[in-house]
């Protein structure tokens, strides 16, 4: 009888950590991180050497904003079960976000030694090398992952960004097709366009990615109409609806694909490949977007009447994966621009500047709120220059043919700005100012101040 009772206790003891682990997984799926942490700690109380629980605890703690504790949990998992790949991959991703590149490289190299046929370590190491601007090694890693599995879409997609950044467009556009298609595509009852003749047809263009992608690649609507007599409809985010409705290129503008009727549809980022776009034939005639004259006049009436008018954007969407690097820490970073007495700085973003930032640059916001990109475009048409970090406003200025000075981070600058150029083959009116050292925005601000001084002096000479 006692032996039977002991067996029952042992079975219960073994089942408890597994049950808590399963409960934690359920909480993780719905992002209830606090409850997930509690369940995992219960599992570990029953079995302190439960490597999978330590790994998942690391992930949960990372989501809860506790990176030091998360690192400890990941490393404990790796020590208990060196063959457990998820802990190494998760730790590597987290440490890369902290710029601990040498440690991350060692982790991935060790993972590759232990799992040479696994795709994850090769792909993650390729992403790391791309961030470190070791492009040759990054390409080797992505191609090795594709050798292991030619259908591995993640590696092919990551390779596309590397190739496009280098201007190797032919293979880059082909690899870009491995990306996830926009969710709106699931609501379209029509075949995808792959280059068939379109005369007399209706083609539905579907925006994807961010607002900047939509503004950059909507230019291909012009080529479509030049080549065929085609009716163009477009599905776009609500913030672009009013601006796109002002363009004569589009017969209909939708925010929901389920309402659109068409003969074919095409995701916007597939158009460059379908038109065999290369560096030397990018459709870069600007402006290719227009603004309603009445709306432009309404906003320009709010701008200063004299002086040099400069629009500013110093922060992007904080949810963007590289926003910490691409956004300025504060508007005070641009304080070298305050020396120019006859320059008016206009805020072009929704987030209001702090009082301290406004004083640092002498900037004032407009008395009315810009609700969408149509309003922002109307303001830009009345400016002399836009200075921006890498956000959709820079694309908007370029699409409107306005001079724009783009501030780029050293770390993970977007592929479309390439690697060393100070101009853009996509936008003739853009000038690029790059960090020389990661996080060193002061250097960029000083370069812009010198360029602005030269521009003002040239303007005075002409007048």
Structure overview:
It is a single chain. This protein is of the alpha/beta class. The protein has three domains: 15-171, Serine Threonine Protein Phosphatase 5, Tetratricopeptide repeat, CATH 1.25.40; 183-281, no CATH class; 293-462, Glycogen Phosphorylase B (Rossmann fold, 3-Layer(aba) Sandwich). The protein has 20 helices and nine strands. It has helices spanning 2-29, 33-46, 51-63, 67-80, 85-97, 101-114, 119-131, 135-148, 153-165, 169-176, 211-217, 220-227, 238-245, 271-274, 293-300, 323-326, 355-361, 373-380, 392-399, 441-462, and strands at residues 202-206, 231-235, 252-254, 264-267, 308-313, 343-347, 385-389, 404-408, 430-434. The protein has a five-stranded parallel sheet with strand order 6-5-7-8-9, with helices on both faces. The protein has a four-stranded parallel sheet with strand order 3-2-1-4, covered by helices on one side. Helix 1 runs antiparallel to helix 2 and helix 15 (293-300) packs across helix 18.
């Amino acid at each position: 009888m006692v032996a039977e009772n002991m067996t029952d206790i042992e079975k219960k003891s073994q089942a408890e950590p597994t049950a808590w682990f399963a409960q934690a997984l359920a909480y993780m799926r719905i992002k209830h991180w606090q409850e997930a942490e509690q369940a995992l700690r219960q599992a570990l109380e029953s079995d302190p050497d439960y490597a999978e629980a330590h790994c998942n605890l690391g992930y949960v703690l990372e989501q809860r904003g506790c990176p030091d504790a998360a690192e400890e949990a990941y490393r404990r998992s790796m020590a208990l079960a060196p063959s457990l790949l998820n802990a190494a991959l998760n730790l590597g991703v987290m440490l890369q976000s902290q710029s601990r590149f040498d440690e991350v490289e060692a982790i991935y190299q060790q993972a590759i030694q232990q799992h040479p046929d696994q795709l994850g370590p090769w792909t993650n190491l390729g992403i790391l090398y791309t961030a470190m601007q070791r492009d040759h090694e990054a390409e080797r890693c992505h191609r090795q992952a594709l050798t292991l599995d030619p259908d591995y879409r993640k590696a092919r997609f990551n390779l596309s960004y590397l190739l496009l950044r280098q201007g190797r467009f032919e293979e880059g556009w082909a690899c870009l097709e491995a990306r996830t298609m926009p969710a709106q595509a699931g609501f379209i009852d029509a075949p995808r366009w792959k280059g068939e003749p379109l005369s007399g047809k209706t083609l539905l263009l579907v925006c994807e990615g961010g607002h900047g992608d939509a503004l950059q690649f909507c230019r291909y609507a012009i080529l479509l109409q030049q080549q065929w007599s085609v009716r163009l409809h477009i599905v776009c985010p609500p913030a672009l609806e009013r601006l796109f409705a002002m363009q004569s290129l589009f017969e209909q503008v939708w925010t929901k694909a389920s309402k659109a009727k068409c003969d074919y549809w095409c995701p916007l980022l597939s158009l460059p490949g379908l038109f065999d776009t290369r560096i030397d034939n990018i459709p870069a005639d600007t402006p290719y977007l227009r603004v309603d004259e009445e709306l432009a006049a309404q906003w320009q009436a709010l701008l200063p009447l004299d002086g040099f008018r400069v629009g500013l954007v110093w922060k992007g969407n904080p949810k963007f994966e590289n926003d910490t690097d691409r956004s300025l820490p504060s508007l005070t970073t641009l304080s070298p621009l305050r020396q120019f007495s006859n320059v008016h700085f206009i805020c072009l973003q929704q987030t209001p500047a702090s009082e301290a930032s406004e004083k640092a640059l002498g900037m004032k916001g407009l008395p009315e709120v810009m609700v969408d990109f149509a309003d922002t475009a109307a303001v830009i048409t009345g400016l002399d220059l836009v200075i921006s970090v890498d956000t959709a406003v820079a694309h908007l200025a370029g699409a409107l043919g306005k001079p724009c000075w783009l501030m780029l981070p050293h770390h993970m600058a977007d592929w479309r700005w390439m690697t060393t150029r100070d101009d853009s083959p996509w936008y003739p009116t853009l000038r690029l100012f790059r960090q020389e050292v990661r996080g060193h925005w002061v250097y960029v601000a000083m370069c812009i101040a010198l360029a602005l001084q030269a521009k003002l002096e040239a303007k005075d000479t002409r007048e």
